[in-house]
Amino acid sequence: MKIPSFRKKKQNSKNKVIFLDIDGVLNHDNAKEDMDSPCLLELQKIVEATGAKLVLTSSWKYYFFQEENNPSKVYIEKRLSDFHMELYDIAPDLGNGKRAEEIALWLDQHKDFTSYVILDDCFFPGFKKMKHHLCMTDWNQGGLTKKHSEKAIQILNGPHH
Fold it and tell me: How far is CA 135 from CA 24, 64, 82, 154, in A?
């Protein structure tokens, strides 16, 4: 039996994930605040165009392992909410410099997610194996820009699943 295409599309949109760094992605050297509105707007475009879920990989995730009302955790959630977004999950913590392994572990534990993009400004060991899913931003070049959001959308909606 053939599955109607509209069901496939709907299903696929739920199976996309954005692995999100914050420093150098949602802020940059000229940012007016810790999570810059122009960068958040670009992230919102990616989410709206792909239906992808947000998984925090940034070192900011440590705020989520602390008390419930940690001010930085509240700030992250508020800024995302301002742009109609929310975190779906937090990547596991395997220690400093192990971001690629954390992403691989998360994907291994969530096999229903078939398409992903990594938004980061640092090239971690292990990212070489994930290069088709990598969208590198730049702290000195405005963080997440239109060019990056277009690339991220292409990665999530494109053939590299």
Answer: 12, 25, 24, 10
